[in-house]
Amino acid sequence: MVRRSRLEIFFDVLAVIDRGVSKPTRIMYKTNLSWTSLHEVFETLITGGFIQEKIFEKSKRYSITEKGRGALAYHLRSLEGLVQIQQLATH
Length: 91
Hints:
It is built from four helices and two strands, in the order H-H-H-E-E-H. By secondary structure, the chain is α+β, with helices and mostly antiparallel strands.
């Protein structure tokens, strides 16, 4: 099993939230993180301005910010470039 880097985990969480998943438990399941790890990631992403936390009575919801969307888009473009380079190298 290959372990994800911290950066990959941040982008996994951003991608899940960007797809419309906003409940913390759902985000935890979709990203395959423990509750403690997820809260550490939330703290970092909120502090950095990549996601927002909204509190509704007794529950919390998370949404991605424009800064988060920009970072995610940049990351995905970078991955596409790496795949293209790898494909060229194998041909």
